[in-house]
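Try it yourself: sequence plus NAP, in.
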Amino acid sequence: MKALVYREFGNIDVFQIAEQPEPTIERDEVLVKVKAFSINPLDWKIRKGEMKLMSGSKFPRYTGTDFSGIVEEVGSTVTDLKKGDEVFGVVKNMKTGASAEYISVSSSLVWKKPSGINFFQAASIPVVGTAAVNAMEKMGNLSSETKVLVNGATGGFGMFLLQLLKQRGANVTAVTSTHGTEFAKQWGASALLNYTKDDVLSHKATFDIVVDLSGKLSYKDARPIMKAKSLFLNSTPQPIEIPTSFIKNLFTSKKHIVILSSPSAKATDILLNAVNKGLQVEVNRVFSFSKYKEAFEYAEKGGYVGKVVVEMDCRVAASDGTIRTN
Ligand SMILES: NC(=O)c1ccc[n+]([C@@H]2O[C@H](COP(=O)([O-])OP(=O)(O)OC[C@H]3O[C@@H](n4cnc5c(N)ncnc54)[C@H](OP(=O)(O)O)[C@@H]3O)[C@@H](O)[C@H]2O)c1
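Structure, out:
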């Protein structure tokens, strides 16, 4: 089978398409024929070697964390999935990736795809959707009186968070660039700031909750726009901030909360419920597998709304030498 792999940390040019044996599965795993994988900032942070502590340094490795596809085979203890099911899910532990024609995955991280969304939308859900659910859980009770600022509101994470916050009735100010404003309004923002024109920190308003999804607004900088009793949710914490924020929070009512989410069945249920109630999953662009370079360049450059997806539509030489298109 074909797989997108890399054998050293680095920029996009470390990627290669390799011919690999199909994986085998353990008792609690499923073999999935991948239809699509979405690109998350996590994927390029791992590829650049920025997360070695968690990802390890074993090569070769695949990329891509979220995927959708069709179940080809199930392990002997798997009871809730069967061959032919349309599914989506996430690979485990930052150690492997979804960028191959077939992947073996723990069945606990694979869910049936709802019929109302396509494979590209399904592959866009797990990492950022789960993180948005996790962020909501950290916020506690919300009402129309709760003023929330979401900085970086129309990327993958923001798309889910804004719509979940709308379903919970919070009063959200969304910070976007110009092309994101219409989406942010549609997804439930009651006020908008354009970061290319407005300085968020010079605004008079103060917030009960500030969420940074851009990696550019620190807790320290955000303190002046936080109410006396408030939360700052940090989606891109430095490892040292995990213990230090915990200790500092004992002495301040402006709390610094680190988001470290991992996909779970519980979070996925909440997301699928929200999708059933009308949560939109915006896929900005789908690139074919042969255009993987362009896909990563586009995703890493930013400046789009929603998610970027790679379709595993590779042409594969069959054993009889003919070419089939998947
Ligand atoms: N801790 C966790 O569990 C967890 C889980 C998932 C993701 N994350 C992290 O959360 C962050 C967001 O994820 P994502 O998938 O949503 O990434 P993304 O799609 O790249 O979104 C980032 C957003 O930030 C906006 N932005 C860029 N510069 C900005 C600025 N100066 N001010 C305000 N907004 C700005 C971008 O807008 P434009 O593109 O329009 O410029 C974009 O909408 C990433 O760093 C990711 O690694 C953490």
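One thing you can check immediately is this: The chain has two domains: 2-125+281-325, 128-258.
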